[in-house]
């Protein structure tokens, strides 16, 4: 076997191993073989990273003019554009996500840094219409302090940008914890951040397991905000952990996003959108449109066309530019998907296409596009987040019925509606309880579009103009404007 690539963590501007020299191997999902070795942060390493971030927060960084911090953000964006090929390749090797997507995404993610660079000097305070004589009161926005950014293994560049860029723009310092399942790309990213000359300790990148690394980070006294993306179970730990340090928490969690296709939908467009929504990135997207409701009049015809399209998806090596679906990211994913499919078939679910491990490679984690017809959406594949290329399909009759079915799930992240009727598109999108609704399209992101869910999909929005304020606190300052001594010290005024 070829020699493993070796990574180090980035703490306080230094490249370091774990203090106890512990490491773990990260696997290439294409062949299930280790390709890199990564330090496993101990509690001590994590503490060191947080203290470095705190020291940097007490230093020059928050005192820089916003436009000076913005220059670093733009420089990070430039680094992303210049190194998109390398970043894309590393992310693809580590996660199995297609190179055609990871490379393009690295370039596009640069725009998030540009966007927040542009916002850095647009956040204003207020002068309060205060109800007291001889008093002037103002509010300003101040940085929060050390931010812990906890990242899952999918879409890491995107999910890091939506936390790191606004945090830096507003003068915070950051400890990024990458996922132990695919940590490499964020270390490569840290090398690029270092090249911008950003003061040491402002950005630190570590990785390790939930315990001790994640736990130490999210309970640490000096951490003031936890920006978390991941699963709901981990989120429950995070919230409990934040009771220790009373830090603010934002949560971007999972989804089981419903999509409705009405009889009057433009079918080719709907098929493309649904395919992008559930088979793009092998369905390993938090906004995957995994519950599909098709109206009665077109049910058979539409389902046949959709299955035909799904069966033609080209499965292959993730670096191959022709490949449309690569492997799943890890073995746990494969097992979860197989278990849910088996239970669904036992309860009457019917496989329309796919359903079993793909023969493309027995060594990697390949699973084909799978469509399962379900009598009701309480079958396991239709109810649980699978994070894979599995689409559950149900039939509906009326608009009212489908709205109620779409809303009948614990999650509320994304959703989709396909119809030629503008008024129906407006009505249904308004009625869906989700943070995002796509009408006649699917799977779009933008720095200016708020991203995040409701219900068990979490709280707090990432991206969009308001998100920058989430990395600040309001400070009220009172000025006494009279030259006369103030009155009665024993009564609040
Ligand atoms: P996960 O919850 O297992 O892990 C996420 C991160 O949390 C990892 O870095 C992990 O090491 C860390 N972690 C684990 N235990 C911890 C603890 N006790 N304290 C602190 N940190 C801890 O999630 P995953 O399997 O990596 O990612 C998949 C999940 O992420 C899915 O549920 C998916 O829907 C969700 N996700 C959501 C979004 C979104 O924006 N809403 C985007 C992508 C993924």
Describe this protein with a few key phrases.
single chain, 37% helix, alpha/beta, globular, 6-stranded mixed β-sheet, 493 residues, 7-stranded mixed β-sheet, binds nicotinamide-adenine-dinucleotide, Aldehyde Dehydrogenase, Chain A, domain 1, Aldehyde Dehydrogenase, Chain A, domain 2
Average pLDDT number: 96
Helix content range: 25-40%
Whole-number total of structural domains? 2
Largest sheet: 7 strands, mixed
Class by SSE composition? alpha/beta
Hetero groups in this structure are: nicotinamide-adenine-dinucleotide
Low-confidence stretches: none
- Rg of Cα set: 24 Å
First-last Cα distance: 75 Å
Strand content: 15-25%
| CATH top level label of the largest domain | Alpha Beta
Care to count the β-strands?
23
Write the layout of secondary structure elements.
Layout (H helix, E strand, L loop, with lengths): L4 E2 L2 E3 L2 E3 L6 E6 L4 E7 L3 H16 L7 H17 L1 H12 L3 H21 L6 E2 L7 E9 L2 E5 L5 H14 L3 E6 L5 H12 L7 E5 L2 H10 L3 E7 L2 H14 L2 E5 L5 E4 L5 H13 L11 E5 L3 H13 L19 H16 L3 E4 L16 E4 L6 H4 L6 E7 L2 H8 L4 E2 L3 E3 L3 H10 L6 E2 L14 E2 L2 E2 L12 E9 L13
Parallel strand pairs: 1-5, 8-9, 8-11, 9-10, 11-12, 13-14, 13-19, 14-17, 16-17, 19-20
Antiparallel strand pairs: 2-3, 4-5, 6-7, 7-23, 12-22, 15-16, 18-21
Helix pairs in contact: 1-7, 2-4, 2-6, 3-4, 3-6, 4-5, 7-8, 9-10
Bound molecules: nicotinamide-adenine-dinucleotide (NAD).
